[in-house]
UniProtKB/TrEMBL annotation, chain A:
Keywords, comma-separated and alphabetical: Acetylation, Coiled coil, Cytoplasm, Cytoskeleton, Isopeptide bond, Phosphoprotein, Ubl conjugation
Region annotated Disordered, chain positions: 20-47, 191-210, 540-574
Protein name as it appears in the record: Dynactin subunit 4
Gene source species: Sphaerosporella brunnea
Summary of subunit composition and partner proteins: Subunit of dynactin, a multiprotein complex part of a tripartite complex with dynein and a adapter, such as BICDL1, BICD2 or HOOK3. The dynactin complex is built around ACTR1A/ACTB filament and consists of an actin-related filament composed of a shoulder domain, a pointed end and a barbed end. Its length is defined by its flexible shoulder domain. The soulder is composed of 2 DCTN1 subunits, 4 DCTN2 and 2 DCTN3. The 4 DCNT2 (via N-terminus) bind the ACTR1A filament and act as molecular rulers to determine the length. The pointed end is important for binding dynein-dynactin cargo adapters.
Gene Ontology annotations for the cellular component aspect, listed alphabetically: dynactin complex; stress fiber
Lineage: Eukaryota, Fungi, Dikarya, Ascomycota, Pezizomycotina
Compartments where located: Cytoplasm, Cytoskeleton, Microtubule organizing center, Centrosome; Cytoplasm, Cytoskeleton, Stress fiber; Cytoplasm, Myofibril
From TrEMBL, chain B:
Record key words, sorted: Cytoplasm, Cytoskeleton
Descriptive protein name: Dynactin subunit 5
Record field: transmembrane: none
PANTHER family: DYNACTIN SUBUNIT 5 (PTHR46126:SF1)
Compartment(s) where it occurs, according to its Swiss-Prot or TrEMBL record: Cytoplasm, Cytoskeleton
Amino acid sequence: MNAPVYPSIFIACPCSDNVGQKAPTRSRTSNDEIDPEEEGQAFNPRAPRSTFSLFPLENLLFCEDCNQVRCPRCVLEEIVCYFCPSCLFEVPSSTVKSEGNRCTRNCFSCPICFAALSVTATGEEQTGPFILLCSHCLWSSQDIGIDFEKPTSITTQLAQKLKAANASSAASLTAPSPDSLSAARPLSPLGAGGTYLRPPSPSALPPDQTDEAEFGRLKAHYNQQKALASGDDYGGSGSLSRLMGLYSSNSGRLRSYGSGALRETVTARNKSEWRELEQLRTVEDEEDVIEKMKNAGFHGTTSQTQRIVQTHSPRLLDELRPLAALLRTKRSKRCRSCRHILVKPESKVGSIRHRIRLVAGSYIPQISISRLDHTAVNYNNLQPGSTHQFLLTVTNPLYDPINITLATPEKTPGQYPATVYILCPEFEVGATTDVWDEALGPEAKANPKVAKGKGKKTGLHATIWDSGRNWTTVVLEIVPPLLPEDVELGDDDHIVKVPILVRSVYEADIEREDTIGKEGREKKEHSYWSVLEVGRIAKKRGADEEGVRPMSIMSTTSSTAADETSGPRDRSLR
Amino acid sequence: MPPKQVKGEYIETDTGNKVSRKSNILGSQNIILGGKTIIQADCTIRGDLRRAGAPGQHGNVAIAVGRYCFFARSSVLKPPGKTHRGAFSFYPMKLGDHVFIGEGAVVEAAMVGNFVHIGAGAVIGKFAIIKDCVRIEEGTVVAPHTVIPPFSRVAGRPGVVVEELPETAQESLELKQLYRVI
Ligand SMILES: [Zn+2]
Ligand SMILES: [Zn+2]
Ligand SMILES: [Zn+2]
Ligand SMILES: [Zn+2]
């Protein structure tokens, strides 16, 4: 939806072994010394599977026991509560089990544009009848001939309206279904059905009737199967009745129904049953459908997005029904490997507070990137072959100072590698001090531990650029590659992706259960792979218009850039 | 973020609000600013559109704004209005803390919670209710009377919830840093 923003930084969650790496180095515990040189293999952000393990820092949690980041894939979620996103009422889980996962109050969304529908009075002086009205596209329930006597319990009223409509049309119709069923079962406008089979001629039927008729037909079919199977030595009848009980009982409890005996029974039969299923599958009378679509015109038919969210997949706009709001959940999260709880939200629906919230940002050093010279570098137009200088800032969230070691391959992974150089890969970052110091403002900033004048912004080798209380900045140099003109390139090849291993070592107080004495310090360390998506490499002249290149040389503005790159090209060919 | 302003562009109030001299604030006696809120040039805030009839105990406030809010250039805040029992009236609009309103956005919500980002050019329909920790993307059109639950990312026309925001949303939507820059 949104165009990618450069630069952006992602962190690799190591939960899936050797993603983006050839050697399974991740099996080592974090206490082992990991020397990037010795490790040999850098994280490859271009490996196809890497996409699935790279996350922005904001989306990561942290497990203290495992000393590791946790991504959405390596946490277990438990539902704390269900609520309706529109009326914000909590729905008890027993109600969710019996009524389904949609709001049973007055919350509906527009079947045309999906905006929220509001209950609106059509009479004088705020009196009925009431309708569900979309204030975005002005669709209303009147468009499908439905209005309500009172402005409350819309779900119940809608169910009754649809049922009444069904009953009247069913009476005037030679219903193809076993009629005993169609009236007996209470109708749900929330769509308990969900299958796409249709009886032969449902065109005259209102939407819910098709569900009902179909249910009846299927039940009759399986009854017949059961009767046939009872005399069989396959023993399928038991499982069939269990299967049928599954759907006709209101308990909704899932019971296991044996080992695929149903399939065996069906295959054991001759083709007569299959014929009936095929008959069910024939979708409406074509002539009829064509006629209706001709009358409705293209603008009277549903789009795919409108169709798939409706349970009866209607073809025409006047067959659409208002959509009851889908419930949302609040969830707590656990570490998948040690089961410790990482996130526990307050159960109150409107609350944004958490009882427990272990997010990666408060444990691991954060890196950010900016341009050294704002005028020289355009993130969306990096010049191939020329050296770009960036500032890489490491921020420490811990209350202890940390020693950082940054490691990056000299040539980034990929077919067209960029050259990367970190001027000062080893440095210290001061501790995060109390919130009070921060509140006192920049005057309280002076931290005796961070030696003043350490960062003189010299840009010299092995010196940091600048530092503050809990952050340090170093210079990062990147030379984007020269992309060949005569080769078909993927979009990914145009983006400079730099993997950086961030390793932090620090001493912390030994955590004790009794919390009385603070005896001794222990050495701790953490390391993670991050990927900097620095920016796009500039398109050279005529890169995508091979044939007309001679003409475009004159008009292009980036020709100087192309000239500059001739040197590095020779170097890379060497 | 925004470039450094020319000195003297903002009038600073006792509670640290910085209001651009070029902003267009009507009915300022009906507007409450919680403090440390920044109002940029060409913003329109319609405090004059207050509840019709009896100016009772709460009848005077048209727009209440919390702390650390940021109203970017050309944004519009207008209390929602409707006809009730034959009489048209405006209803008060309440904004929480750390509310960012992007350039050119038009807000007619009844309530906006804390830590809400409304992208540039977005339109928030009448009587919409936006809860805490919500990010509304640029150019989104939120239909009138819509309720947006906490931890939602909203996009599209009409705006619908497209994603749940992570637990860190509050920190990423905080505006204290932005106030310091101006
Ligand atoms: Zn993971
Ligand atoms: Zn609801
Ligand atoms: Zn609509
Ligand atoms: Zn764990």
